[in-house]
Amino acid sequence: MSDLDQLTQSLARNLKRWRGERGFTLDALAARAGVSRGMIIQIEQARTNPSVGTTVKLADALGVSITTLLDYEQGPQVRLVPPEQAVRMWSTSTGSSTTLLVGTERRGPLELWAWRLMPGDRSESDPHPDGTIELLHVTAGELTLVVDGEPHALPAGTSATFEANVSHAYRNDGDETVEMTMAVSIPPVR
Question: Taking 80 as the threshold, does the pLDDT of residue 117 lie above it?
Answer without folding.
Answer: yes
